[in-house]
Amino acid sequence: MSPRKNRRAVTGKPPQGGGGGWAQQTEDGPDGEWIVRSIAGAAAVKAYRCPGCDQEIPPGVPHVVAWPADERGGADDRRHWHRPCWQARARRAPRVQRSRNAPRY
After folding, report:
1. Domain boundaries of the chain, sorted by first residue
2. Among 45, 46, 39, which Cα is nearest to 23's?
3. I want to staple 68 with a disulfide (CB 3.0 to 4.6 A). Which of 35, 40, 73, 103 is the partner?
4. ∠ CA 39-33-14 to the nearest 5 degrees?
5. Annotated region Disordered: where (predicted)?
6. What is the pLDDT of residues 77-88, one digit of tens each?
7. Per-residue CA distances from 47 to 58, 61, 62, 91 (Å)
8. Is 86 exposed, middle or buried (0-12, 13-18, 19+ CB in 10 A)?
């Protein structure tokens, strides 16, 4: 008796990402339309600096990569963010570097 083969034929379009440890989607926010890619911890092999909190994202930490969705957005425009920093980007004020004796207003 031969073993059963219940493999279904793959139909439709495969999910974006191809199983490489990331999934890509387009997000529309108050600051424009962005292409956002989730990076799994196993796929994160380099250290990056998060623009939201200005802290390092060490290798092995899951995070997101975002860049503008317009035709100008390329590899140079990609930014690596902590997931909570990316989700809170609309609520964050830009960081202003002040000297120690500067007024805070």
Report:
1. 23-87
2. 39
3. 73
4. 50
5. 1-31
6. 899 999 999 999
7. 5, 9, 11, 25
8. buried
